[in-house]
Amino acid sequence: MHARLAVSALAAPSCRACGAIGHPYKSQRVADASEALLHTLGSVILALQVQEGAVPLPATGGGVLDILRQTGPLNQVVFAILILFSIASWSIILSKAISFQKVARQSATFLEVFRRSQKFSEVQAVCPTLPASPLVGVFQAGYAELNAQFRLTSADVSNGPNPASGPQRPILKSLEAVDRSLIRAATAEVNKLERKLTFLATTASITPFIGLFGTVVGIMIAFRRIGATGSTNLAIVAPGISEALIATAAGLFAAIPATYFYNHYTHRVKEFSADMDDFSLEFLNIAERNFT
């Protein structure tokens, strides 16, 4: 009798929490497993039914050109505006790159000639061969002011009470007037260098907002499709969202290069302006030593 009780106690499952013999833990676990299996089978059957009733997705290439062909007229206008801004900004970027390289090369050549020459007239003879250098414009303005003052000085000497018999050393009447001429010429040259750079700044400022406008329109179209069909299927929502995202990408594609090269070329213009300021000081020093 005791042996049978011991065998029964060993065969009966014990509760993990309290250790009691004969607790219905095993039967509860089997019931939970059966319920989970039924739930899984039900989920699979429901998914198959939804898949059978779903609208098949259209086969699309997914490329940018395909999206542009399928987009609405308003978004196409937005894309056309952004493309025009991008083409114009890239043409300015490339033209400025070529122009600034020529400016740097001819400015270096002009400074070499200027510092090697003994007379301003020798430098003036070389100026027509270096038209891209802004230093040429500054030098010609200062040289013209010097000649104007020398002519006045020569006229005063020749018309004076005791005109000299021989050639007189040219005398500079006003060094400040020469300085003003140099400053005015440098300002004009800086304006030439900055020409068309404002378009890059405009492109960098407004094209993201144009792209954002296209994004808003695309999202509005997507919501209208949802409201018209009463379905949130991806095949209905995805085209409007794609149009919205590609409009944003087009705006950034136009704005990012314009921002970078505007900052880069603005820095180059500041460097050229500093070179003109240094040259003006050097020109004034030579004029003061020789003509005052």
Describe this structure as you would to a colleague:
Mean pLDDT is 77; it is low at 1-27 and 36-61. The protein is mostly helical and 292 residues long. Helix 3 crosses helix 9. It has one domain (71-158, 169-291). It is rod-shaped. The longest helix has 58 residues, at 234-291. The protein starts with a helix and ends with a helix. It is built from nine helices and no strands.
In short:
The chain is mainly α. 79% of the residues lie in helices and 0% in strands. It has nine helices and no strands.
What fraction of residues sit in β-strands? under 5%
Counting H and I runs of at least 4 residues, what is the number of helices?
9
Distance linking N and C termini? 138 Å
Q: Uncertain spans, ≥5 residues at pLDDT below 50?
A: 1-27, 36-61
What's the number of domains? 1
Q: Please state the oligomeric state of the protein chains shown.
A: single chain
Primary descriptors:
292 residues; disordered N terminus; mainly alpha
Q: How is the topology of this model organized?
A:
Elements: H1 2-11, H2 25-53, H3 64-70, H4 73-116, H5 120-126, H6 134-158, H7 175-193, H8 197-229, H9 234-291
